[in-house]
Amino acid sequence: METQHQRRNPARPEVISLVYADENRTAVAPFVFIKTHKTASGTVTNILNRLSERRGLVPLPCCRADDCSGSEWWWPRSVPPARNSQLGAFDCINGHVVLDPERMRPYLTRGGRAPLFFSIVRDPLEQSISSLSYYSHDTIVRPSQRRQWTPHLNWLQGLRAVGPVSSRFINSMAHDLGWYDWVLARHNISHPQRGKISKSTRFNDDDGLIAEWLTSLTGSLDLIMLQDAFDESLVILHHRLGVTLQDMAYLRHTHLQNDTARGIHSSSRPVLPLPTSAQASKLLELNRVDVRLYAFAKRRFWQAWENVAPVAAREAELAELRRHVLRIDSACVELFTGFKGQPSLKRLSSTNRTAARLRQQREAALRAICTPEMRMDEIMYRLRESKACQG
Minimal CA–CA distance to 118: which of 176, 168, 63, 61? Predict the structure, then answer.
């Protein structure tokens, strides 16, 4: 029997049956996902984008009128205050934005269900290395700092405040989870003018203040996922959102499609040497808030993992999720290795032309699953042009 999704998307049924579960399930809990930098958060975002599309969830749009700037959303700020027309109008917030539950909740009161707030963190040293490596091909990093740890560390050490560039490299995860905004409010410091973000680093060594902030996160974030326990994180998330494990399946080897989408070849990526032990120690010292945040998140996460289900049940769910992931990987290999040199439809017989069209439909469906960075751009464009931005 044809499903509603197949009637809306006739090019996708074969792939949907391959990697997605039946749509007839209970409603998804409203949610806020805080996308942090270089933590595998892009993979989570793509999982949630596809989930939103299939379930008909209404995400908070990124509107030009609200000073939302494309792929970075409102980052390095939080969402703007909700207008009357936006109160309770949306099901989810999913993107780069600084955590601020008090501003976010009014958007998501539809149905009277409390939204699930969650994010993801990573080992701070690995995150720091990944950030400099990733942005070394970008113009936001000064040429003198690319592929070199000493000038990069000297720059970080000299910072007295963080802004849109530096907040990617120093206590980046804490920044996105609201550390600097919380400190400003805690000390009754006026918030910087809109568009002139400047957040002081002078409290980054205050262990007592950091501990107080981490305690406040207990009431702000329902789940902090771990990049180094990614599959276990998704098992917990599927319970919290009320969806199936198939909904949590993802493409593992995203670097291939991401580089292709960005026009980057692995051979052209700048090579960043690993930091020496002294440089690594300095990185951790400078990222003290992230170090404390990661330790806090690990303790909370493994407690949540112990409580999610009995040992045998959660291990079975973990194995099931990984089977779904392997199926997606197998399907996407076809996209990255095939579909090249296909003959023009005009040159084929009618029978072969039908087969070729079906193959093109399958390619289009696979691209929707296997090239999430391109899909994110498409989704972002739709959100920016949606009617919700006209209200």
Answer: 176
